[in-house]
Amino acid sequence: MENKNIATIGVFGGSGFYKFLDNVKEVEIDTPYGKPSDSAFIGKIGCHNVAFIPRHGRNHTIPPHLINYRANVWAMKSLGVERVISPCAAGSLQKHIEPGHFVICDQFVDWTDGRKSTFYEGPVVTHPSAAETYCPEMRKLAIETAKELGITVHENGTVVVINGPRFSTKSESKFFTTQGWEVINMTAFPEAYLVKELDMCPLNISLITDYDAGLVGDVPPVSHQAVIKVFNSNVENLKSLLFKMIEKIPPERKFCECAKTSEVSHG
Length: 267
Fold this sequence. Notes:
- The protein is an alpha/beta fold.
- It has helices spanning 69-78, 136-148, 170-178, 188-197, 214-217, 224-248, 261-264, and strands spanning 9-13, 25-27, 40-45, 48-54, 83-92, 102-103, 107-111, 153-154, 158-162, 183-185, 201-211.
- Strands 1, 2, 3, 4, 5, 6, 7, 8, 9, 10 and 11 form an eleven-stranded mixed β-sheet that branches.
- The protein is globular.
- The model has no long low-confidence stretch (mean pLDDT 91).
């Protein structure tokens, strides 16, 4: 990992969010898992050097099911990143979570198929726990910052991750809703779990852009155009949240166990 200590905070950008930092240095990275989605763009926020990687590529050329998540996450680790923030466009599965709201998810459900979702493929066999994937310290900071900025934020939520690129059918969406899950997205897994495997702190920030499959007839079904329209209208809120939150992140990790994930896993 020859780029070590270039950045301590990482941000993966998604739909509608390709330019995050100004005055950046572009760093190309190779990994044992191939090329990441794009270069890493390094800038400074407060006392932190921040690395930004657009998970779909800077021109949105990589669909969710073909993203090389392992290469992206390995690239972050190779830069020295300790905390990874993953903002994403997402759908709502519950009426009280409205387009324009933010959800700081604390659980995920994997509904994907065939994605490479671990770095442990032998000869080392281990099982890092996914029981509490998302970093509690980072979640607390994100929630506090959103409230300070007057952003409507839901402090908990389960995100069900579907494979994409298609959206849900009405029957699928109804099933997800009846399970009590709040958020639906195409990229939150395996990204967060891979971050956890490499002893970094994962954080999900879901920006709600639509009601999935129209919450079975109550509102119009989702379209990609509608997603981008709502996301773009809230991108300044997201940038404000990220900048203010990153400025407040303490230099050292003291209040979470994320750095010890690989130590406490077992075969």
